[in-house]
Amino acid sequence: MQLPARKKYAVKDVMNDLKKIGPSPSLLGEIGSKLVYYEWSCCDNLLGNDHPVTIHFSETLEFMEHGFEQLLVEGELWRGKDTPQAAINDFLKGRPAEFLNYTLDRPADYTRGLLESIATARQEEIEHYAQMEEGVRQEIEEDPKNPELWNKLRLLLWIIGKYNEASEAFKTAKSLGWTKESSGIVAL
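Given the sequence above, the corresponding structure tokens read:
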């Protein structure tokens, strides 16, 4: 995947690149801890914790490190159209231009390098989880009425990027009695 070269990054540039990558919750969390946390900290020191840009960075950090994963694990991202790109778009809705156009303090080379490493990790992650898919399907053959196994398959398929198949697996899990309250999976 080729990401655009930039001399500087605004928040919206990072988010647009992330939409192209289609990150999993763990990779989005990595961007949060390695990039957004730093930017939030800088804004907190320079602008104050009650400044709108600081507040939006805080919310972005929360979304990246916890919110995105929570949406997936709790079954909020289950339809074929519920992709990482769609989740990021939903999160960005209503964010002010002042925040979206805010230029990051980190050097462009650092930000680009981090995004490229996330894109590479994403490809490796897809390959890794695709290998796990066969094992989970075999478990389901042995216990086809187990809603936890169907939910596990849904999560694997979603992370691989097979969103329509993930949606069908989730429908099966729900029909067999899966609920977020009874789920054994609380984090990825």
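The two ends are 25 Å apart (CA to CA). Try to locate this feature in the token string yourself.
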